[in-house]
Amino acid sequence: MSASPPEDLVKHWESEQERLRQQVVEDDTEDWQRRPDFLGLQRVGGVDLSFIKGDEVNACAQLVVLSYPDLELLYEDSQMVALTAPYIAGFLAFRETPFLLEALQRLKLTRPELMPQVVFVDGNGLFHYREFGLACHLGVLSGIPSVGVAKNLLQVQGVYKNEEHQSQIAVLQTGGESFPLISASGKVLGKALRSCDKSSKPVYVSVGHRISLDTAVRLTHSCCRYRVPEPIRQADVRSREYLRVHFPATQT
């Protein structure tokens, strides 16, 4: 948006993020998280929003639930939504979370047996300006363990895409290898993960809610057939396909 965001709105959102940040649990809370090969984990969710080309308001909010460990589709929900909150860097969750929550609530009402035991979010969790990104927001409000997986590095809190960062990426030789993303204060905010052997470009994993970072990284790797974990990849593919079918004139 070209206009400066209203100062009172930014302050309100900052306050809300700080309030909800206090509720984030950065530890493993589920038995399956502690078991070898995540025994007991049967359903993994993925969420994403895809926008009509050239339109910053109308989007397809997508939820998928896949089986684990087979990663086969169990459920999908594609819903056109109109975003009402403005885009302000660092506050993406206030635009997107309400619609992703609605998708989870629809699933709970119609097919509760298919509710995911963990949700992968296309975005960041604790690796964020105020340590409360989209994955944290959705995790806290839904109560479901959540993992943030970003395709691009958010340059924040002293973490930069510089020569040192590139040299660390070069050291990652095989899928599953990672290195920590450390803030200027020394706190580990997430990890850069080589998610599969096929891709040398990492993804950036951070805690959303009710899972530890090490578990989040191992789980992300286990869900990757390609660079992006399958729940997020399927949510992206299916939301884009929905737009291609229903709004063909707007897609390239």
Automatic annotation (TrEMBL):
GO cellular component, one term: nucleolus
UniProt keyword annotation of Glycoprotein present: no
GO function term, MF aspect, one: RNA endonuclease activity producing 5'-phosphomonoesters, hydrolytic mechanism
Top-rank taxon, per record: Eukaryota
Keyword Kinase recorded: no
Cofactor field: Mg(2+)
Keyword annotations from UniProtKB, A to Z: Cytoplasm, DNA-binding, Endonuclease, Hydrolase, Magnesium, Metal-binding, Nuclease, Nucleus, RNA-binding
GO BP annotation list: DNA repair
Subcellular location: Cytoplasm, Stress granule; Nucleus, Nucleolus
Chain's role: Endoribonuclease that specifically cleaves inosine-containing RNAs: cleaves RNA at the second phosphodiester bond 3' to inosine. Active against both single-stranded and double-stranded RNAs. Has strong preference for single-stranded RNAs (ssRNAs) toward double-stranded RNAs (dsRNAs). Cleaves mRNAs and tRNAs containing inosine. Also able to cleave structure-specific dsRNA substrates containing the specific sites 5'-IIUI-3' and 5'-UIUU-3'.
Family the UniProt entry places it in: Belongs to the endonuclease V family.
HAMAP family referenced in this protein's UniProt entry, alphabetically: Endonuclease_5
Subunit description: Monomer. Interacts with PABPC1; the interaction is RNA-dependent and stimulates ENDOV activity.
Protein name: Endonuclease V
